[in-house]
Amino acid sequence: MRVLVVDDDPVSLLVAKAAVERSGHECLTAPDGDAGWRLYQDHRPHAIVTDLMMPGLDGLALCRAIRAAETDSYTYLILLTSLGARDD
């Protein structure tokens, strides 16, 4: 499975990449939503793990763009946040 991890925090990005690869999956990484969008278009990963708050295209906007672009495939989306409120 090809997994794209998108996070503007370099440490979180490395930790997530290591976890994905330890699980036996191919991992692509992007430091922000704009780069994540480009990698999605180029590689069509099976799953995306993305941070909510990032410069440029944020995680929610990235998820919306992916859903709008999908026609014949499905990408699993996991949206992460360090925000602590239930509404977040």
TrEMBL record:
Taxonomic superkingdom: Bacteria
GO biological process: regulation of DNA-templated transcription
UniProt keyword Phosphoprotein present: yes
SUPFAM superfamilies: CheY-like
InterPro entries assigned to the protein according to its UniProt record, in alphabetical order: CheY-like_superfamily, Sig_transdc_resp-reg_receiver, WalR-like
Keyword Transcription in record: yes
Residue stretches making up the Response regulatory domain: 2-88
Keyword terms, alphabetized: DNA-binding, Phosphoprotein, Transcription, Transcription regulation, Two-component regulatory system
Residues with the 4-aspartylphosphate modification: D51
GO molecular function: phosphorelay response regulator activity; transcription cis-regulatory region binding
Pfam families xref list: Response_reg (PF00072)
A GO cellular-component term linked to this record: cytosol
This protein's name: Response regulatory domain-containing protein
Species this chain originates from: Arthrobacter livingstonensis
Phylogenetic classification of the source organism: Bacteria, Bacillati, Actinomycetota, Actinomycetes, Micrococcales
